[in-house]
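We emphasize that the prediction below concerns an isolated chain of 180 residues; any contacts that depend on oligomerization or on bound cofactors are therefore not represented. The input was used exactly as deposited, without trimming of termini.
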Amino acid sequence: MNDKATQLLLPRLEILLRDFRHSREFVRYILEKKLHDKTSKQAELVHLAFETAMIVSYWRPFSKQYDFKGHAVLKLQNDVSRVLTEAQKKLHERVHERRDTDYAHSDAKSHLDENFDYGKHHLAVPYLTCMRLPKSQTVKLGEMIEAWILHIEKLRTVCVSERRAGLRELKTRQKLVSTE
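Result of the prediction step, given as a token string:
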């Protein structure tokens, strides 16, 4: 990787780390506060808010991302097979689907009952409740987030090493030029 590419990649890796760290904090909050076990309206609202934030911030690194000039950058989705187990990949795709249908958008299949005739009934319209991820999947998502953080930190270490090596090479060249 050339020095210019490394310079551009390092800030992007930091953004990805920030997103995953946010998601990790939301997972921790949900589990520490035992929100899966609470049934009050307020607890359900808090759970929905933190789960929405967890899923949106988890998926952000896999969404389209652009540099300052509008060019697409870094596709983390290409690393899924290297980072996640087969079981984790299934949850990863489930989170993607839920993010796209329940959390970031309002698709009919996740909010409306397809057996209900909405054309006949105008007053009592049934809406489906957005189902929370079970506790076991929240725990597993937390494990996946840790794997992604470790992966990105390794990529960052490689980039930093390459950048340092490039700077050393540049300084060596400058010394050679100045001694001639």
